[in-house]
UniProtKB/TrEMBL annotation:
Subcellular location: Cell membrane
Protein family: Belongs to the binding-protein-dependent transport system permease family.
Classification via SUPFAM superfamilies: MetI-like (SSF161098)
Domain spans labelled ABC transmembrane type-1: 122-349
Residues spanning the membrane: 28-53, 128-149, 161-184, 226-246, 284-306, 326-345
Database matches in Gene3D superfamilies: MetI-like
Classification via Pfam families: BPD_transp_1 (PF00528), BPD_transp_1_N (PF19300)
Coiled coil start-end: none
Protein name: Peptide/nickel transport system permease protein
UniProt cross-references to CDD domains, sorted A to Z: TM_PBP2
Record bears the keyword Transcription: no
Lineage of origin: Bacteria, Pseudomonadati, Pseudomonadota, Alphaproteobacteria, Hyphomicrobiales
Keywords: Cell membrane, Membrane, Transmembrane, Transmembrane helix, Transport
The organism of origin for this protein: Neomesorhizobium albiziae
Classification via PROSITE patterns: ABC_TM1
Amino acid sequence: MSLEPAIEPAAPAAVGGERRDSRRARRLAVSLGAFLVTVALTFLGLLAITFFIGRVVPIDPVLAVVGDRAPQAVYERVREEMGIDRPLIVQFASYVGDVVQGDLGNSVSTQRPVVEDLARVFPATLEMATIGIIIGVLLGVPMGVWAASRQGSLLDQAIRVVGLLGYSVPAFWLGLVGLAVFYARLQWVSGPGRIDVYYDGLVPPVTGLMLVDSLLAGDTQVFMNAVQHLILPASILGFFSLAYIARMTRSFMLDQLNQEYVTTARVKGVSERAVIWRHAFRPILVPLITVIGLSYAGLLEGSVMIETVFSWPGIGNYLTNALLNADMNAVLGATLVIGAVFIGINKLSDVLYRVLDPRAR
């Protein structure tokens, strides 16, 4: 009699499970690869757009360095050192190589690497835009839902007027009025700047976010002073975000409230609150994520006027000064960062789609 143990065939269920896991892993790998390729191509297109726009604008970066009274020999030497005398395609290839290595060149205005300047100014814009989008979401979404659920009422008309004002009022005008009323007249908030000069330098920069850094340092006085400076510009940005989010939420909700399943739920005796928030609101979460993401990216990119009015040391103010000084390295670097933010937020929205909507997986 043989003493060798009998080899039992693998169970069909186990084999099927391994095949499913293998197919799932392949689908995940293909999806991840497609995602990375899409991001790389989009970023390459962004690089191409920013580079060629920077080359066709009527600004001579060489004159920004040497001045308009420099001798021709000096002009030609600097032009050669900057590589502008080479063909455009060669300049673009060199530009892409430098960006991949994290080199955006040096700023003519600050005489520092553009990467260091952007790392210094971007947290200020990020902080203000984040508070602004939080205000916009917390107020805009309920306002849009209420307006849709009471279509044609006085509340609906008032919310639509607020949305219209958010689209039509110039940002710089609203900022100046806010400073004149809430700072100069009522003295409810602090004035321009990110923080009072007295508190400048008391908190060591860790994240670049003044609210976070002051809390990490345990300095409540600096924190409260930063809040007083931040609340007015962030509220103005939040107002513009609120107008867009409320309008889109109202539109989405009106479409859902006219669906048959909502009528069926009401016929069955479901409470109006449950019909609105449980049945009609859930399906709009996916498109609403896109609206919020685009609004957030718009605040990061469109805060130029607000930062100028409030002397806010963010990327918008940095970009404005770079344009005025013909500092093309700084202009291209800031534009590239803003475009990268748009790409990142759009891709994050795609990921959230798959999390919230199983049909998109």
